[in-house]
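Build the 3D complex.
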Amino acid sequence: MNPLLLIIVPLIGAALAALWPTDRTRPWFLPGVGLIHVGLTFWLFLHPPVVAADAWLAFDPLARAVLPAVSLLFLICAAYGVSYLRIRSERPNRVFVASLLAVLGLLSAGHQARHLGLLWITTEAVTLAAVPLLHFNSTPRAFEATWKYLLVGGTGIALSLLGSFCLGYASLHGGGVGDLTFTALTAQGAGLSRPWVLTAWVLLLVGYGTKMGLAPMHTWKPDAYGEAPGIVGAILAGGVTTVAFTALLRVRSVVAASGAGPIADRTLLVIGLFSMLIAALFLLGTRDFKRMLAYSSVEHMGILCVGAALGAAGAAAALFHVWSNSLTKASLFLSAGNMRRAAGSASMDDVRGMTVLTPRSAALFVTGMFAVTACPPFGPFFSELQVVRASLGSGHGVTTTLFLACLLLAFFGLTRVVFGIVDGRPRPAAQANSKKFIETLGVVAPPALLLGLSVWIGLFTPAVLRASWLAAVAQLFPTP
Amino acid sequence: MSGTLNLVIGLAMGLNLIALGSSRLPMLIRAMSVQGVLLGVMPLLMESERLDWRIVLVALATMAGKGVLIPGLLRRAMRAANIEREIEPFIGFVPSLLLGALGTITAVALARALPLLPEHAGTLLVPGSLAAILTGFILLIGRTKAISQVCGYLILENGIYLFGLVLIHSTPLLVESGILLDVTVGVFIIGIIVDRIQRAFDSLDTRKLTTLRE
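Done.
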């Protein structure tokens, strides 16, 4: 079967959704396409195709290790989307549904891109396709957030293009013929011109790091996640950031092949720990529970980078963490979206007593909070434990200490906000507003299912999934 | 051949300074669009001996996109938003010009320090690209109107395009056209958002976008 279907099916779905006549039935495109996509992805996952070395797009081990998580996440969010768009029937959803499906198609392309230029084009296209999702609410605040996203994200993506050109020039300068597939670049290895490789690495780290939301390039994230609907936050935090992370992994393996691996690892480690620290500090200060989720996402991107910097064992842990973080964080975004809708605000100053107003969402939110702060038996506990073990195993004592200290600080910050909004007596304004919001099965079951998956991935990680992460690591860290 | 190319790049570098010094928005947009046309000419000059239809196509698309389409979109946004034509800077015009000039000198010096292939060492491609990137950053940071910031972003993008020209022999043009397409779509979306910001805030002054912060 052709992996290109993963890209084509959602894009056709997007086109059909854009042409579909009524707003009422259009949202069903989301779970429909999502279901086909999950079916195709898991079929490919179980029957991995043979990858041609010079293929520009392929379901290679790295795509196999990550793309199913994105696909699964999309399907569950899509099921939520049907109920969500029914609640928001006052807003036209033509552009929203079409953009969401386009994002899925482009994410599938980005994860499978094995060519430096193609990777850039797909990442840029995902960035652009996500813009209409961010200002779905059409409030001035949403436009402000969109503007910042476009400007910061656009600059980041421009720098990653410059970085891609520098890496291309490194190949040309080293006598390459200008084949920019990752296979060819890795094969050229030490033949790449070292100064250009290092320039490229810095630019690509900043560029794709902006897309991922690593500190200090994370500034768009709280605004965007704070103002976008919960479902968009879930897909951005679980899918779009993942594509930037796999891009960095692919570039890192080229840099490592050229002999600058230790430098790349050190920068990844520093930027990862810095992101965790900044996120933890902002978590202690923020008063908005949707912005809180954005900082938590910055923290988890930091964890991914720390993992990727710790060699093969760490990278496998990071891929595990991609799964556990995507599923858990999405559950938090969806339940936070419910509470935001019911309370009419996302600030701790106006919102409290959510256990009274939305008991189910509040329970899911609290459970999700424990999951994302790495309490057992949820996925993040096991994946972060693996990162810590990789870190201790490679003799990074200071890193481990800092890592655990940041996790503790983030735990304080998250509990402060979460219990601030679920406890106490609801404000009268929120109470009146919450009458309009009913916790139907459609908006409660998806986050609950995501939490269930988070437990499952932690306690009962399937052997085939573990093997797929190891296969991806073998692709990224070839043993000579 | 290299002489003509350097002349064109020199002109593009001069346009950077015009963009930095211009106090009126239409002038800034014009400087950017002329720079776009110059960028479109460059691949034709570089490949004048072995011209094929793909290079001509990319050159034409660049000229049409960067020289006509994108500036047209920005002019329309400017008219629709009915904004004042004066640019209010964070960083004044003289300081921006001085920064720009300093940036240009640094770019030339930096490009000398970088290891370049002999066929690129004699051209101004790399210094020109670095100078445009710096100019773009100065405009992005130093201007307050959304449209001037977009112009800054596009000049930054022009600089990157200029760098991309050193790879013209080796990268397949598919990639270049994809990049061009993305940039055009990006500006189109930016135009829509600019319009919405204008309606929501009744202004395009990005200093008013300060609701979202810690």
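Chain B is about 75% helix and 0% strand.
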